[in-house]
Amino acid sequence: MGKLSDFDNELDDNHATFNPDSGIKVLDRSLLILRTATAQPMNLSEICSSTGLPRATAHRLLTALHVHRLLERDKDGRWRAGPGLSELSPASSDRIIQAGMTVMRSLMEKTNESVQIYRLTGNVRTCIASIEPASGLQNTVPVGARMSLLRGSAARVLMAWAPEELVQSIIPDAAFTEDDLAEIRTTGVAESIGERDPSLASVSTPIRANQGVVAALSISGPVERLRPSPQQLYGNLIREAAKRINQSLQ
């Protein structure tokens, strides 16, 4: 409990109070840092200047918020919103599924291919929704299936907006590069041909809520039907579909 009194004494008189004040200073200061860093990416010195918090206090709280994935650091060392914020947002898996089912069914009917939604769950991706055509050769992915982030268009999309530490941990073994992820962030769509399974191809795009990427929408099927490029075939279609889901999540 000594830590609490340490925090109490670390703010100087000019910044001793700020609103809202819950009476729990560690919580108030953590939220102050969270609001500051999510409003605009900042380095440690800028956060200290903006909040009035001593450097040691700010660093300790930033580290704790990073552990809980509420904040992350970019390549320039600036703190910004982390993926944990999206996970705590109203865009829960159930809400994403509810927003996506009609759109997924429409995609399946237009393409006669399988359609899935994946979420990043730790160091894997998990299928949270899946629709298959009634007949024909399919790419059946059961809801709850957990897959590697090393391969596949959905993995590429999720990794394009994943925490930098996770990206760096998987890039050495991945079927894609950091340049590939940068391109996906520009185009908003990713494709894969025979990466996860030699007979399968797919195209994916991000689903967004609260200004963050919360899931990936995918169309997948046999390589023969999606050649020469799943992105050329269905890139525009899947982007428009994702926009409709995004609007439902706002």
From TrEMBL:
Keywords: DNA-binding, Transcription, Transcription regulation. Coiled coil: none annotated. This is Transcriptional regulator, IclR family. The gene is ltbR. GO terms for molecular function: DNA binding; DNA-binding transcription factor activity. Residues 24-83 form the HTH iclR-type domain. Transmembrane segments: none annotated. One of its GO terms (biological process) is negative regulation of DNA-templated transcription. It comes from Corynebacterium kroppenstedtii (strain DSM 44385 / JCM 11950 / CIP 105744 / CCUG 35717). InterPro entries: GAF-like_dom_sf, HTH_MetabolicPath_Reg, Tscrpt_reg_IclR_C, Tscrpt_reg_IclR_N, WH-like_DNA-bd_sf, WH_DNA-bd_sf. SMART domains: HTH_ICLR. Residues 84-250 form the IclR-ED domain. The keyword Transcription applies. It comes from the Bacteria.
